[in-house]
UniProtKB/TrEMBL annotation:
Name of protein: XTP/dITP diphosphohydrolase
GO molecular function, one term: ITP diphosphatase activity
InterPro entries on file: MazG-like_dom, NTP-PPase_MazG-like_N, NTP_PyrPHydrolase_MazG
Domain NTP pyrophosphohydrolase MazG-like residues, every copy: 31-106
Gene Ontology biological process terms in this record: dATP catabolic process; dGTP catabolic process; dTTP catabolic process; dUTP catabolic process; response to stress; TTP catabolic process; UTP catabolic process
Top EC group: hydrolase
Species name: Leifsonia shinshuensis
Keyword Hydrolase listed: yes
Length: 219
């Protein structure tokens, strides 16, 4: 019996291994997890742009670039004492995680008919996976873009009963076509006044996180 022919993903893994092996590419061999962060961020944003513009060819290319970053980090880990995992270990870990988070699909004791049903029990599953987390804020990366971080924190604030988004006041918008120009106008107004909109929002978000933790402590 002959071994199965390598898949195209196997071929890409082999290319990465050859580039970083002795006699390969000096630049690739010199990279570290830390030195590659800038490229991971850049490639991720390029993928987001391809998705948002709906360009099929660019999406195909940018998905490949992001995948290559994952393979790069896995190959570095495979040759770093104390890390010692490769892309197969990454895939195995992710498979276990996804099966564990979908008991309604993989023969568990949960049932779900709608997406809301799934969201309803995901928190319990995540708590079981990471028992060391004591706050709804744990695990939220603070380096997220400020608007994305604001969206995430508002969801957490509602979860602990600090706010009710269904009853929130403020400016009412019904579509992203309305929202975009409004956000741009706010930033333009801040710039005209010499204010830093990014810093202002992040400062407010730090205050919100403090309020969330106080709410958690009181409950």
């Amino acid at each position: 019996m002959t071994d199965a022919a390598p898949t195209r993903l196997d071929e890409l893994v082999a290319v990465m291994a050859q580039l970083r092996a002795p006699g390969g590419c000096p630049w690739d061999a010199a990279q570290t997890h830390e030195s590659l962060v800038q490229y991971l961020i850049e490639e991720t944003y390029e993928l987001i742009e391809a998705i948002e513009t709906g360009n099929r060819d660019e999406m195909l290319e940018e998905l490949g670039d992001v995948l290559y970053q994952v393979l790069f980090h896995a190959d570095i880990a495979a040759h770093t004492p104390g890390e010692d995992f490769d892309i197969q270990d990454v895939a195995e870990h992710m498979t276990r995680k996804m099966v564990g988070r979908h008991p309604h699909v993989f023969g568990g004791d949960r049932t779900a008919e709608t997406a809301d049903d799934v969201v309803g029990f995901w928190d319990d599953l995540k708590k079981a996976e990471k028992p060391g987390r004591t706050s709804v804020l744990d695990g939220i990366p603070q380096a997220m873009p400020s608007l994305a971080l604001a969206d995430k924190l508002l969801g957490r604030a509602e979860k602990v009963g600090l706010i009710d988004l269904s009853e929130s006041g403020g400016v009412q918008v019904e579509s992203e076509d309305e929202l975009g120009p409004l956000l741009l106008a706010i930033v333009a107004s801040a710039k005209a006044q010499g204010l830093d909109a990014e810093r202002a929002l992040r400062s407010t978000l730090r205050e919100l996180q403090g309020e969330i933790r106080e709410q958690e402590a009181s409950v």
